[in-house]
Amino acid sequence: MRVAIAGAGAVGRSIAGELLENGHEVLLIDKAPTAISVERVPQAEWLLADACEITSLDEAALQRCNVVIAATGDDKVNLVVSLLAKTEYGVPRVVARVNNPKNEWLFNESWGVDVAVSTPRLMSALVEEAVSVGDLVRLLRFSHGDANLVELTLPPEAALAGTRVGDVEWPEDTSLVTIIRGTRVLTPSGDDFLEAGDELLFVAAQAREEQLEDLLSLRREDAAG
Hints:
The protein is 26% helix and 27% strand. It is an alpha/beta fold and 225 residues long. The protein folds into 2 domains: 2-118, NAD(P)-binding Rossmann-like Domain (Rossmann fold, 3-Layer(aba) Sandwich); 132-217, Alpha-Beta Plaits (2-Layer Sandwich). An 11-stranded mixed beta sheet has the order 3-2-1-4-5-6-7-8-11-9-10, with helices on both faces.
């Protein structure tokens, strides 16, 4: 997979390193000469250019990229890069960094963004996830399709504890993608049983989140009543 990253700061370099370790091709783009630190990520391609300029993106051959990541520290730049990547070059997957949570509402498919990642929001979500049992926590927002990655830890008294995954009537537009049980990460099948304390990760439409939370938080005594 070929990935272009706009922004070669600490965030961009860190993402590049992870992707390279996983065997992907990476191009780092930055207009600041001081950001071009080839020795820090020597396996990557580097381009000194303004990622908001069409000529620069032509030089980067963005049309050959499977993914573009707008990872600069400027939300305006990230939006422009996302829009150009999607509309001018037809990049299949565009991921954008949100620096100011107040701007998060802009990072949607209208600006070419498939996935918006807000570091402050993600950090607060991870804190909630660590201490919340029975409450739905939104971890990540997928702008395209209005879907979110959400997590809920099944409480001890949950009515669904001991139930087969295939027997649960999940809300529409929701998909159980992972069960984290202790140190194990399970890909759920219809024959797996849910257990109290399971961390359940779903991709769910935002309109279904409340319904999903109600279902997972239902207690045995309330279900019996």
